[in-house]
Amino acid sequence: MSMNEIRRITASSFVRRTGLAALLVCGVAGCALIHENGTPFAEIRPEQIRLAEAIHLARDRWPSACWWTRYGDQQLSALIERALADSPTMVIARTRVSQAKSDVQLANAGSNLQVAAIGALDRERVSASGFLGAYSTTQPLIGATGPWYTEGIVGLGASLDIDLWGKQRAQVAASIGVQNARLAEESAVELEISTDVAQLYYGIQTTYQLINLLEQSQQVAAFAMETHNARAARGLEAQTLTEEARAQQLAIERQIVAAQGKIKQLREALRALLGVGPDDLRDIEPLPLPQSEASLPATLSYELLARRPDLQAMRWYVQSSFDRIDAAKAAFFPTFDIKGFFGVNALHLADLFTHASQQINLIPGLYLPIFDGGRLNANLSAVRTASNTLIAQYNQAVLNAVRDVAITGSHLQDLDTEAELQTQKVQAVAFVRDSMEAHYRRGLASRSAAMAARQPVIVEQVALLEIDGQKLSQEIALVKALGGGYRTD
Fold first, then answer.
1. Where does the signal peptide begin and end (predicted)?
2. Is the Cβ–Cβ distance between 339 and 158 less than 8 Å?
3. CB of 104 within 8 A of CB of 320?
4. Count of CB atoms situated within 10 Å of the CB of 218
5. 55 falls within a domain
6. In the prediction, which pLDDT does 35 show?
7. Average pLDDT in the 376-403 region?
């Protein structure tokens, strides 16, 4: 509180404010009028939050918390737990939550009693033409020893805003809504990171399996090339067949090199996600792919909204926007505050701590918006528009969430059918391979024929591996689309 404010408080008197009640009655009648209230958009209807009846997997359930543990893979669990603890993205999300908590405390502090210690020393020369002109000369009767004075003031100043219309409460509620949204966003980031880690991890494991099959195919191709080369050397066949076998072997080698490069790329993506250095990520041991356990709940409806953290975050932002609208409406009404001061104030520093220098001020105040140039209506229109935008974004996000579940569930259904058909195909070509090897053992077929019969089996196994990898990827995507075990009322 500046010296001029203290001097204004000193000049005021409680008696002059006895007409406050009358001013209040007139003020409520004369405050600015609301012209830009607007109409809120409607939220999405329940019938739009459901799946088509044709989309239904064999198992019916929602994902569980720590959903990745059902795979029983210690490597995967360790990677996800490390990412959730140390990932830079996760650190940013937690920092945003802390910031929102501070904003709530800041908004809440504005509605509490504010008390400040005041101390000031003012060395001034009084103007002979000013309000205190009598003090510019020496007049002992009034204590004037001008024109120079050393004025001092020491005491406590207090102020309290009386929130009759709920403006401050609405602002606090809006800040709490943002805080809750940030908490939901933190869960959404956890879900995003855990599913991304799982996708990268099983991308690496699938590529390991692919390399294993390609190496088997390379052995068959190498044997074929050696056989054709030996025959060509004896003049039993043309060199063309040798070169064809060599071309096939080189094509398989190229596939192996590409697969090894893919593992390096996936590993680097995983390292960046975890936020670790090149030497801090241990080698990932090859393991068989787990069996798919994808499932869909029997119905979605509004439960999807409670299980998707990103939707909960948007819903809290919408709720916060409603509170901001309430605060904008409350700004049209009169505001009241009470200011007070208790301490000592003296024109002469030597008299500062005397009993006669004690000062007490109690000043109720009224602020009444009457003509504001349209500022309050413009603000209300802006917050209403922002709220409607959030509602529209929320409705679209809900539809997108239902779409993600539907598309992923439908794709998984198709992949289940494809996997079943491809398994039968692998079994068919494997029967041919086993038959040819049996003939070879009995001397009824050549070794070349037996080895050549292995190649179609490997080709079909690669195709089945690709389907299994897609199934696992889509299963993780479905876990993400269903909220990954997140649940809120």
1. none
2. yes
3. no
4. 20
5. yes
6. 67
7. 92
Contact 34, 332 (CB under 8 A): yes
Give the C-alpha separation, 13 to 36, whole Å: 39
Six-digit token string for 433: 């391979």
| DSSP annotation string for 336-347 | EEEEEEEEEEES
- In-domain check, residue 284: yes
Map tokens 């528009």 to a residue: 385
DSSP 409-470: HHHHHHHHHHHHHHHHHHHHHHHHHHHHHHHHHTTSS-HHHHHHTHHHHHHHHHHHHHHHHH
Task: Identify the pLDDT of residue 1.
Answer: 45
Model confidence at 374: pLDDT above 70: yes
The pairing of beta strand 335-346 with beta strand 144-145: unpaired
| Gap between the Cα atoms of 469 and 452, Å rounded | 27
How many structural domains comprise the chain? 1
Instruction: Return the minimum-mean-pLDDT range out of 39-53, 98-112, 160-174, 276-290.
Output: 39-53
135: tokens are 């003090």
Q: Is residue 343 part of a domain?
A: no
Domain of residue 461, CATH code? 1.20.1600.10
Percent of the chain with pLDDT over 90: 48
356 assigned to some structural domain: no
3-state secondary structure of 64: coil
pTM, two decimal places: 0.80
User: Whole-number mean pLDDT of the chain?
Assistant: 86
pLDDT in tens, 408-417: 989 999 999 9
Residues of the domain holding 202? 31-111+163-334+369-481
Q: Which helix (H) or strand (E) holds 61?
A: none
